[in-house]
């Protein structure tokens, strides 16, 4: 089930539904690509047809931004609850651990994916993280060989957006993983190198506000939300 916001698709699955679908896709060897959608990306795609095509090319566009849920509510849509990139990644790790699926972590500064691996192993006993690679390795053959070495079923790509999404569409047919998710700065958060907003802010959907307090120079990102809502409602 998908809903479109200014030409960008968003799917309405929750964490459990999507995790079950992904496990099934692994069994069927059906390559799948997940992208996190927020108002910022949708607005950027308005002036960038290539980006819009890329976002719509993903198999599952998860509603990461609170603004997307708000827009859906205001227009009586189907996308009811947030599915954040990092929480979806955690859910996939959880089911991978219990279903013996192999994981690869690609991206972040040197050492970050390894540190995230250590944390994920603590959180999900039995998880098989069969390889890691930092996001600054430039040798294409090294990247491909390292990823393919232990035939992972799932790869999380943390190169920042939209670099990671372009990387995924350009490589998904030629590397062994079946499930591909672009996860931005998630390895930084999981490894403990970057703090996420306190639960209080997360629960109220106010992570953006917390970020604004911590990094006021990002204010430009925040004025996008009202512009986005106005445009969605005008349509
Ligand atoms: N990064 C990388 N290789 C690069 C550029 C960036 O691995 O050439 C990593 C960077 O270390 C960080 C992530 O990509 O971990 C980008 O995180 P950010 O939160 O900026 O991404 P967003 O979620 O905003 O797209």
TrEMBL record:
Keywords: Cell wall biogenesis/degradation, Glycosyltransferase, Teichoic acid biosynthesis, Transferase
GO-annotated molecular function: N-acetylglucosaminyldiphosphoundecaprenol N-acetyl-beta-D-mannosaminyltransferase activity
Superkingdom as given in the UniProt entry: Bacteria
EC number(s) reported in the record: 2.4.1.187
GO BP, sorted A to Z: cell wall organization; teichoic acid biosynthetic process
Pfam families reported in the protein's UniProt record: Glyco_tran_WecG
Pathway: Cell wall biogenesis; teichoic acid biosynthesis
Segment forming the signal sequence: none
Xref: InterPro entries: TagA_TarA, WecG_TagA_CpsF
First-level EC class: transferase
Known catalytic reactions: UDP-N-acetyl-alpha-D-mannosamine + N-acetyl-alpha-D-glucosaminyl-di-trans,octa-cis-undecaprenyl diphosphate = N-acetyl-beta-D-mannosaminyl-(1->4)-N-acetyl-alpha-D-glucosaminyl di-trans,octa-cis-undecaprenyl diphosphate + UDP + H(+)
CDD domains hit by this protein: Glyco_transf_WecG_TagA
PANTHER family: PTHR34136, UDP-N-ACETYL-D-MANNOSAMINURONIC ACID TRANSFERASE
Function recorded in the entry: Catalyzes the conversion of GlcNAc-PP-undecaprenol into ManNAc-GlcNAc-PP-undecaprenol, the first committed lipid intermediate in the de novo synthesis of teichoic acid.
Name of this protein: N-acetylglucosaminyldiphosphoundecaprenol N-acetyl-beta-D-mannosaminyltransferase
Species in which this protein is naturally found: Bacillus timonensis
């Amino acid at each position: 089930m998908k809903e479109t916001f200014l030409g960008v698709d968003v799917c309405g699955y929750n964490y459990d539904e999507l995790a079950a679908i992904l496990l099934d896709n692994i069994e069927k060897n059906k390559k799948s690509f997940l992208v996190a959608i927020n108002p910022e990306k949708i607005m950027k795609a308005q002036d960038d047809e290539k980006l819009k095509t890329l976002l719509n090319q993903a198999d599952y566009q998860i509603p990461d931004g609170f603004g997307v849920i708000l827009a859906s509510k205001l227009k009586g849509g189907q996308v009811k609850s947030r599915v954040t990139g990092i929480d979806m990644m955690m859910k996939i790790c959880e089911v991978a651990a219990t279903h013996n699926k192999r994981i690869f972590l690609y991206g972040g500064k040197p050492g970050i994916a390894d540190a995230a691996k250590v944390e994920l192993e603590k959180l999900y006993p039995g998880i098989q993280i069969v390889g890691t690679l930092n996001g600054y390795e430039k040798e294409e053959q090294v990247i491909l060989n390292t990823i393919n070495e232990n035939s992972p079923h799932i790869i999380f790509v943390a190169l920042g957006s939209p670099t990671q999404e372009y990387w995924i569409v350009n490589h998904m047919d030629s590397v062994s993983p079946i499930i591909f998710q672009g996860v931005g700065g998630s390895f930084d958060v999981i490894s403990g190198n970057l703090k996420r907003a306190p639960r209080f802010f997360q629960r109220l959907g106010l992570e953006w506000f917390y970020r604004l307090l911590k990094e006021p120079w990002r204010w430009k990102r925040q004025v996008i939300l009202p512009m986005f809502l106005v445009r969605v409602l005008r349509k």
